[in-house]
Design a protein that fits this description.
This protein has a single domain, classed as Immunoglobulin-like. Strand 4 and strand 5 form a beta hairpin. 16% of the residues lie in helices and 49% in strands. By secondary structure, it is an alpha+beta fold.
Length: 134
């Protein structure tokens, strides 16, 4: 009985992991894949991918690690989309990518109405400069 219970639990864990791997593609906001600039996200697919299309390669880039693993890298701030096709031309994924800054490592400096954003990973360097309120 104990072995049978462990086998059932093992099967359920594997099934849950499979569901999680395919749902992990649709990241944080359902239909939006969020990636930080100069960082990568790994997409695990339940079927092999044949073609990867990025709308604007200046914003994000995708690399095929293997037939079921895609690495998306944020290149510059903005949004674009990613389309993954199987060998029959069917869309496995067609989602929006938003590339943003990792807010946890930034410092904002306000001087009157001017604003400067510093990225501090590990040294503080100017990231963005603007005027007015954020």
């Amino acid at each position: 009985m104990h072995r049978r219970t462990l086998a059932v639990i093992g099967t359920l864990v594997c099934a849950a992991a499979s569901v999680f791997a395919s749902s992990a593609v649709l990241a944080d906001d359902g239909d939006i894949l969020r990636v930080y600039m100069n960082s990568a996200r790994i997409l695990k697919l339940d079927r092999p991918v044949s073609k990867v299309i990025i709308g604007n390669s200046d914003v994000a880039d995708a690399t095929v690690a293997d037939a079921r693993t895609i690495v998306v890298t944020g290149r510059s701030y903005g949004s674009t989309n990613i389309v993954l096709l199987d060998s029959d031309g069917n869309a496995l994924l067609d989602e929006r990518i938003v590339v943003s800054i990792d807010e946890s490592n930034t410092v904002r400096v306000f001087k009157s109405t001017a604003r400067t954003v510093l990225s501090c990973t590990p040294n503080c360097e100017q990231h963005a400069q603007g005027s007015g309120t954020p």
